[in-house]
Predict the 3D structure of the following.
Amino acid sequence: MRGWNGALLSSFYSRMLVKWEEKGSPMRHKFDGQTCIYCDNAPAESSDHVVGRKFFLEGRRGNLPQVPACKRCNNRKSELEAYLLTVLPFGAKNADAAEILAKLVPPRLEKNAKLQRKLRRGYERSGGTAIPFEHKPLEDLFAMIAKALAFQYFGVRLGSGYSSIASLFANEGAGFFAQMLSTGKARVSGDFGEGTFKYEGAQSKDDPQLTVAIRDLWRRGLRRRSQCERTVLAGNRGHGSLGDDRESLLQ
């Protein structure tokens, strides 16, 4: 009986080991052996979604593009997304905006009481018209997304001597960027989640690593306050308030 039990235990352990290697090992992914697209230095340890899945309703999370990422860069991108996942929906105007705000934002606010208090204070100081928004996380995240999109569509890695920079610009700058896009040798565009994340981009004719991309996140839910370090996220631009559904989350 002792030998039989030992054989049974060994067989059970082998099956569990094989199962863990197939489903639980962090090194088994489709980009195994490649380099992180974000830092272009460390080996990729996982597949990272170009745009975080949680930006979208569950029914719209399929077939999102992925790129190779190291643990450090993946964690950094997740940190940026955590803030934006909670705040951006307050200014959203895409087709899923109301449902995202009602279903996905309340649990996130409950888990982050500090952020909830900060948003409430800013909302009260504005007289119920806007909430404070930190533009730096958005710019940092979009800089990473730009690298991922360049790799996804053009097969380009931004190596030494190149950097990815993201900035918010007013409508007056649209013409300048449209001209840049028109001169590219290859143009791409896409739309994830029925307008939740729309983008277009182009690759330079002379330098393959020089690309430009314009992203329209949450259908222009952002507007900038002149001569102010912060960007203000307004829900119903021109109507004087965030709206009852948004206000209720900050009471």
Remarks:
- The helical segments are 2-23, 71-87, 97-103, 105-111, 113-125, 135-154, 174-182, 244-248.
